[in-house]
Please model this.
Amino acid sequence: MNSDFPRILTLLRKEQGISQKKAAADLGISQALLSHYEKGIRECGLDFIVRTADYYGVSCDYLLGKTPHRQGEKLHVPETEEEDTHDGLPNVSRKIISNSLHIVFGILKKINSKSLTKEITLYLSGAVYNAFRMLYTANPKNPSALFETKDGLSEALTDGRMQLARAKSRVMLLGEKVSDDEAVKKDDLPQLSGEMLSAEYPDWAPSLFALIENTENEHKEN
Model:
């Protein structure tokens, strides 16, 4: 059994506010055995995996960490006429980011705060600017006139503005004002969950789940 199963098994139970004792009884096993499964001490059989997936309303693939989508849907990348290299990885990566941004800005639209949207846009724009400038300046033959900020200052200034934008966003989301920027009211914050995102953004949610999974896997490796 992989290491994702105990973590997801525990997460699903806690998300639904079910005690370990009740979950064990509902699944037809002892609490001690369920505790061993959740800690990764013992491996379970296929019948338990199927029973548990039905119990929590998820797919077996999700339960085993094989897909970030709770219903087991695969990431769909629409075909384009562009010819990609490296087995299509640039296209897949681009669609994952692009689709995920649709959801980020969809949530910002729900919150309806111009100040918050401005700061998060600045944060995201800074990441794109840094990535493009790094690629552009890697070749010394490319004309430097495209940028006004000196190369030695650019990254530090952009990173600083990104950190400030993130800090302002966090403060506003806590319901506090930042200078003349408006605070975000708690009642304006939408209720979010994997199920809600899948239902409201069916074409884009798998990409966001893939982005989250990929990023957290990188965290584990570093």
